[in-house]
Specification:
2 domains; alpha+beta; 27% helix; 147 residues; Barwin-like endoglucanases; 2 helices; 6-stranded mixed barrel; two-stranded antiparallel sheet
Length: 147
């Protein structure tokens, strides 16, 4: 009859328990990082240059704002999502390909696709002339940042 070394069994159990606890820690850490990334960061720059896309949503945004012509915004329903401008702020978006400009109201967070600086509503994309292309190189200038 062979004797089982208890130290080996104890070490395996400790390793397994540590692995499970490490997995839980990493899961909690990833959720915490995701929550931090969705928080609005203070706007440090007054001008951003990069790609813009548009969203074809109607109704409400994730932040509770309204999208498009139903928004009741005085600027013809031109709304946008920006990562750091405060909600309710206005920004001037200029399409660098054709020099068309439009004023948008920030009512949501985003975009969360790499290389994009702003997501505009369908009506704003029409006014900027890039709805058919889907993406355009733009310059975003903060006009009024609401606090």
């Amino acid at each position: 009859m062979q004797r089982i070394d208890c130290n080996v069994a104890d070490r395996f159990g400790a390793f397994r328990d540590g692995y499970i606890q490490g997995e839980r820690f990493l899961r909690k850490l990833s959720f915490s990082l995701a929550a931090l990334l969705t928080l609005p960061m203070p706007a440090t720059a007054e001008t951003w240059t990069g790609k813009a896309s548009y969203y074809a949503l109607k109704g409400r945004t994730a932040s509770g704002g309204q999208v498009g012509a139903h928004a009741g915004v005085k600027v013809c329903g031109h709304t946008a999502a920006h990562r750091s401008l405060p909600l309710g702020s206005t920004a001037l978006v200029t399409n660098l390909g054709n020099q068309r400009s439009v004023i948008v109201t920030i009512n949501d967070r985003g975009p969360f696709t790499g290389g994009r600086v702003i997501d505009v509503s369908r009506s704003a994309a029409d006014a900027l002339g890039f709805r058919k292309a889907g993406v355009a190189q733009v310059k975003v200038e903060a006009i009024e940042a609401m606090r």
